[in-house]
């Protein structure tokens, strides 16, 4: 996992994580756009690189402090107060 967070009170900054995952011969690129200036939330998105299409997205209720693939199709997300599981297969929200 590559993680980069940039903060500066004088300049708007974006921190992000990028992960490429392959599942059933399909490559997915997952971006976690970290805290944007003036917000306390993260916007998560999953992209299919080969189709050049966004597969899923979700606006988190609070900032994600850690995330990790816990299986080839399940992403684990941790915030200050909760732990979530997010499947790349179904169209539901976080569990």
UniProtKB/TrEMBL annotation:
GO terms of biological process kind: intracellular protein transport; receptor-mediated endocytosis
One GO molecular-function entry: structural molecule activity
GO CC, any one term: clathrin coat of trans-Golgi network vesicle
InterPro entries registered for this protein in UniProt: Clathrin_H-chain_N (IPR016025)
Origin superkingdom: Eukaryota
Signal peptide per UniProt: none
Protein name: Uncharacterized protein
Organism: Gossypium mustelinum (Cotton)
């Amino acid at each position: 996992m590559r993680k980069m967070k940039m903060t500066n009170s004088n300049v708007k900054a974006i921190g992000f994580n990028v992960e490429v995952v392959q599942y059933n011969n399909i490559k997915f690129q997952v971006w976690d756009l970290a805290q944007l200036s003036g917000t306390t939330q993260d916007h998560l998105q999953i992209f299919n690189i080969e189709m050049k299409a966004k597969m899923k997205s979700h606006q988190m209720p609070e900032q994600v402090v850690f995330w990790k693939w816990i299986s080839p199709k399940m992403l684990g997300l941790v915030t200050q107060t909760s732990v979530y599981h997010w499947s790349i297969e179904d169209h539901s929200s976080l569990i």
